[in-house]
Amino acid sequence: MKCPMENREGEELLLNYVSGALEAQEAAAFDQHMLTCAACREFAHGQKAVWEALDLFEPAPISADFDRRLYQSIDKLSWWDRFVDALSSPMVAHRGLPIAAAAAVLVVAGFIWERPTAPPAAPQAPLSAEVQTLQPDQVQHALDDMEMLREFNHLMRTEPSESKM
Amino acid sequence: MEERVNKDMAGLAAAIDYDAELMLRVKDGDNASFGLLLEKHRSPVIHFLYRMVQNQAVAEELAQEVFLRVFRSRGSYERTAKFTTWLFRIATHLALNSLRDHRHERQQESLDLEIDDQPVRQVSDRRPTVEQSMVYQARLGEVREAIATLPEKQRVAVLMHKFEEMEYSQIAKALNCSESAVKSLLFRAYETLRARLAHMA
Fold first, then answer.
1. Under an 8 A CB cutoff, do A53 and B76 touch?
2. In this structure, is the dihedral angle defined by the CA atoms of residues A18, A23, A26 and A29, taken in order, positive or negative?
């Protein structure tokens, strides 16, 4: 067996040996090689020590309410989070569409929110109110105008017959 | 022959990836499947984060965020990689961000490892003596410090390789680098750890 310490590809073999990931045949070959290779022996010894030392790093116990807290966080997701999540689904849209849709919703919402409200239309005065606002002198003036027009018409009709005479 | 069959079975298992099936069910609105995924991966994720940030409260907080992101991503989930690879990629991302955000605080307390966070050692046959307990605590402190001082990516690679027993390809995907880069990371990391911890043999 060629010494794995002599080539870069041997790194994987060395690591696999110590982690127990080597196939039995390869492991046996490496065991045989170590009988005559001090460098590999030293490596394997040191790596085995590291492997065992790391086993000391036991994890701490997990809080009993971990799941409860997680489900509470899920329940607290806002309507906006759920809306964005739903839009992210490929069934709803292609990539990029969620952003466009969200932007469109924002624009429409902003338009509705900020649209200037039209001033209330002035109530239309009833027709009778206009009549009531006419002054008596205005009526008199209109009647005078009508009388003048009637006289003017009369003159216009009589003038040609007088001229023929 | 037997080894070849085992390898084939492992390949088949990866192809089937029951976790990915569960996640697809979550995508279809089956929240019970999310519960199954949580039950299965809660401990590995929290333990990985604990060894990364070396603080149980922070690890659980980050794990909450990991699973919340998994739930929120259900709509866009696609089976493009192994579920665990995807899960640990999220966990790694959050852990590295947390470490970067709290780098200053960590430097101040780096040598003052939190005794409260250390697990209570379970001894089945007899209680450890005071001396044994002190030796254990001292050795554990050395291990924690040796891991904490590894560069971030080396630390992630070692924890995934040693404790999660992830394949090189999975670690590569989680770290967004090549398999050969992962092997180099691991080799350098173990070299550093051998220099620091070999005396513990």
1. no
2. positive
